[in-house]
Design goal:
By secondary structure, this protein is mainly β. It has a single domain (12-118), classed as PH-domain like (Roll). The chain contains one helix and nine strands, in the order E-E-H-E-E-E-E-E-E-E. It has a seven-stranded antiparallel sheet with strand order 6-5-4-3-9-8-7. A two-stranded antiparallel ribbon has the order 1-2. This is 5'-(N(7)-methylguanosine 5'-triphospho)-[mRNA] hydrolase.
């Protein structure tokens, strides 16, 4: 397990994580921040409630050398399908500690409880 500090991963853990992210997106050039454990929920308008998805794992916020210049990925521990979102003007964020709510351009409202682990 990689060490996590307030600024994110340190040392070899950061290098390994960056290499793993770059396999999915070669334009990622720097990890900005990390949350060690998150779970993704979507808002079900019919049921009018939050529904847990099958996306759970480590959240990486990063910069890219191509447009869009920033993004985030949840490296999913439950399946091979990661969740990646470009950070653009069409992405709305709202922090309701300990939750990070966002709505993307597809108007998909999601809630991500963020747990940060400091070692």
């Amino acid at each position: 397990m990689a060490a996590v500090a307030a600024g994110g991963l340190v040392g070899k853990g950061r290098d390994i994580s960056l290499a793993a992210l770059q396999r999915h997106d070669p334009y990622i050039n720097r990890i900005v921040d990390v949350a060690s454990q998150v779970a993704l929920y979507t808002f079900g308008h019919r049921a009018n409630e939050w529904e847990k998805t099958d996306v759970e794992g480590t959240l990486f916020v990063y910069t890219r050398s191509a447009s869009p210049k920033h993004g985030f990925t949840i490296m999913n521990r439950l399946s091979m399908e990661n969740r990646t979102e470009p950070i653009t003007k069409d992405l709305d964020f709202q922090l309701q500690d300990p939750f990070l709510l966002y709505r993307n351009a597809r108007y998909e409202e999601t809630e991500t409880p963020v747990t940060r682990q400091t070692v």
